[in-house]
């Protein structure tokens, strides 16, 4: 009996031959849920984006149509926001990568000898997750406000001009995006670097590669899955974010991103078709960018 | 939720999380380090790591410190130390902060229960059964994690609008459950995959009915993964603002409360709640880490 059990386990380690009826029973509720509350909303969004205002209707009343003009309208009205979204998100992704790589390298490679320290540092990396994202951002706003200690001392040292501002500028928004998404960058980098076999690095330096060459030709390629995962996990939410860029947080009137105009159109102006068209543009652009990026970095199997 | 689970979950469908074997191999190969050769690296990287953690923790410390501020209305300038805000959290604005907090907890608990149930069922089916639509289902689970929150939020709001469903607590719960399911699947799937099928085989050999085998063998073994997934989805739901904002109508949640009051100044009571949640989560995570370390030590002694 035991031998038979062993044999079947050998032959099909993870796929017992049970009827697929059970699989269907297990899958159906969750999949139906996602179809109902994820896929259909995307279809609703597409339909809404093509709606036209109801004739003689009130503000916020629309009817189904094939009004692709909406897309032209939002592109002409909001092209700076679209560019800004992707520009800010790209900058934040680059900064987060530069910030996180040495940190993840230290936790994942240098701290291997001290597992307790390693887990403590991981807790510190995810610690910001435990405190409200909005309050953290507001804390930065106050720490870096014009009257704050940091800014006044920078001005006293003439490192900043006398009427320079930080909050309300693109720098502040990029700073906020970078800060808020650092854990999303650090964790996948850590996971990749933690598995790095150091013998490869030794082999490299035994073959007279200098430390920089070893890093560029061995460490970076081996941590590529982490880099790709981290940049995607930072870029996607950063491009859609509207908290950091909001006027009450780190942004100003000239830093509004796509998320801000989607929110304003949907919840304030009740211009649902414009909000929907912008959402579809954002989603499509991200899918295309992600597809190209994953293909070029040679990590298709990640998906 | 432990660092690794967070890491695995954040990594989402992007990377498989079978790290244990590989990392053990990496650890063994640590060998003599080459730090001596680089010289600079031996102190540069640790210093950088410390500074990076200081940077990551600044807003958290700020939020915590300002929960003790003897502020009157807005909590911007430091006016002296007091315990009052901690003792009378619910006394401000007729308890608006506490009401928002309570709503967030209710939404988090209900969404977590539904998402964990549905997600666990999917995870078991994905690992244990072979079926044809597998890749389509994997894509359906991956997409919600790769879609910007503003698109998810606007999409659902457009759907509720089209169907004519009024926005209230139920719509928030429906929305939160949707984006939590994928994270649950990813977290639990790793656990199901690491389960030894021989244990269930043994249960069947001892004449256990399928139900008995599941509830007495499989389910207890899956519990750590399910608990981690539940904690993760609660954390995601509790801190979500963007999707909530589109689907909440007039219902207030804690993040929404912070966002709305940001323009006129956040009362210190919000800092109190955020700090309390932070401390609670920190204790939970460190407790889990310590108990896991103790268990590992015990197992090492046995083996």
UniProtKB/TrEMBL annotation, chain A:
Main localization of the protein described in the UniProt heading:
membrane
The record's section on InterPro entries has:
MetI-like, MetI-like_sf
Q: What is this protein called?
A: ABC transporter permease subunit
**Keyword annotations:** Cell membrane, Membrane, Transmembrane, Transmembrane helix, Transport
A Pfam family per the record: BPD_transp_1
- How does it sit in the bilayer? Multi-pass membrane protein
**Compartments where located:** Cell membrane
**Which stretches make up the ABC transmembrane type-1 domain?**
82-293
The answer to whether the entry has keyword Aminoacyl-tRNA synthetase is no
Q: Which residues cross the membrane?
A: 22-47, 86-108, 120-139, 171-193, 214-236, 274-294
* Family statement: Belongs to the binding-protein-dependent transport system permease family. CysTW subfamily.
**Which PROSITE patterns does this chain map to?**
ABC_TM1
Q: Does the keyword Disulfide bond apply?
A: no
Automatic annotation (TrEMBL), chain B:
Q: Where in the cell is it found?
A: Cell membrane
Q: Which UniProt keywords apply?
A: Cell membrane, Membrane, Transmembrane, Transmembrane helix, Transport
Supply the Pfam families for this chain.
BPD_transp_1 (PF00528)
What range(s) does the ABC transmembrane type-1 domain occupy?
A: 101-290
Give the record's membrane topology.
Multi-pass membrane protein
Q: Please give the start and end residues of each transmembrane region.
A: 43-65, 105-127, 139-161, 173-192, 213-238, 272-291
The entry assigns this protein to a family as follows:
Belongs to the binding-protein-dependent transport system permease family. CysTW subfamily.
Name of this chain's protein: ABC transporter permease
């Amino acid at each position: 009996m035991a031998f038979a059990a062993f044999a079947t386990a050998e032959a099909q380690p993870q796929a017992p031959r049970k009827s697929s009826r059970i699989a269907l029973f297990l899958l159906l509720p969750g999949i139906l849920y996602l179809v109902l509350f994820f896929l259909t909303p995307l279809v609703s969004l597409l339909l809404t984006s093509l709606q036209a205002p109801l004739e003689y209707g009130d503000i916020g009343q629309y009817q189904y149509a094939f009004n692709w003009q909406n897309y032209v309208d939002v592109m002409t009205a909001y092209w700076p926001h679209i560019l800004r979204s992707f520009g800010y998100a790209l900058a934040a992704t680059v900064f987060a990568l530069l910030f996180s790589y040495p940190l993840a390298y230290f936790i994942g490679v240098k701290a291997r000898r001290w597992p307790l320290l390693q887990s403590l540092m991981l807790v510190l990396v995810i610690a910001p997750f435990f405190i409200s994202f909005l309050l953290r951002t507001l804390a930065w706003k106050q720490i870096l406000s014009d009257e704050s200690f940091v800014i006044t001392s920078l001005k006293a040292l003439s490192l900043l001009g006398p009427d320079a501002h930080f909050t309300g500028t693109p720098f502040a928004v990029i700073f906020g995006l970078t800060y808020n998404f650092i854990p999303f960058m650090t964790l996948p980098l850590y996971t990749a670097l933690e598995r790095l076999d150091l013998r490869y690095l030794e082999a490299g330096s035994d073959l007279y590669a200098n430390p920089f060459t070893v890093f560029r030709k061995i460490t970076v390629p081996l941590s590529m899955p982490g880099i790709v995962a981290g940049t995607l996990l930072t870029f996607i939410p950063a491009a859609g974010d509207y908290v950091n860029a909001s006027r009450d947080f780190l942004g100003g009137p000239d830093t509004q991103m796509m998320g801000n105009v989607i929110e304003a159109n949907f919840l304030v102006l009740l211009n649902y078709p414009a909000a929907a068209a912008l959402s579809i543009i954002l989603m499509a652009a991200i899918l295309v960018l992600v597809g190209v990026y994953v293909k070029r970095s040679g990590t298709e199997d990640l998906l | 939720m432990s660092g690794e689970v967070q890491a695995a979950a954040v990594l989402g469908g992007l990377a498989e999380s079978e790290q244990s074997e590989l990392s053990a191999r990496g650890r063994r190969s640590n060998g003599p380090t080459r730090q001596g050769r680089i010289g600079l690296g031996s102190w540069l990287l640790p210093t950088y790591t410390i500074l990076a953690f200081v940077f990551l923790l600044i807003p958290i410390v700020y939020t915590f410190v300002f929960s003790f501020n003897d502020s009157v209305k807005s909590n911007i300038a430091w006016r002296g130390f007091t315990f009052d805000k901690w003792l009378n959290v619910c006394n401000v604005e007729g308890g608006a902060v506490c009401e928002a907090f309570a709503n967030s907890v209710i939404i988090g608990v209900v969404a977590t229960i539904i998402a964990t149930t549905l997600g666990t069922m999917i995870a078991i089916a994905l690992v244990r059964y072979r079926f044809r639509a597998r890749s389509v289902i994997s894509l359906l689970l991956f997409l919600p994690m790769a879609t910007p929150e503003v698109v998810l939020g606007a999409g659902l709001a457009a759907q509720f609008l089209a169907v004519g469903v009024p926005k209230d607590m139920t719509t928030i719960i429906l929305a939160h459950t949707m984006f939590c399911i994928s994270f649950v699947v990813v977290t639990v799937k790793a656990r199901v995959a690491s389960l030894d099928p021989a244990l269930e085989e043994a249960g069947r050999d001892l004449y256990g009915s399928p139900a008995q085998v599941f509830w007495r063998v499989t389910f207890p073994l899956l519990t750590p993964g399910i608990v981690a997934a539940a904690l993760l989805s609660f954390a995601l739901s509790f801190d979500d603002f963007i999707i909530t904002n589109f689907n909440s109508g007039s219902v207030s949640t804690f993040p929404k409360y912070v966002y709305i009051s940001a323009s006129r100044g956040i009362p210190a009571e919000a800092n109190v709640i955020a700090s309390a949640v932070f401390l609670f989560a920190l204790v939970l995570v460190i407790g889990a880490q310590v108990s896991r370390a103790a268990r590992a030590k015990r197992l090492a002694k046995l083996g």
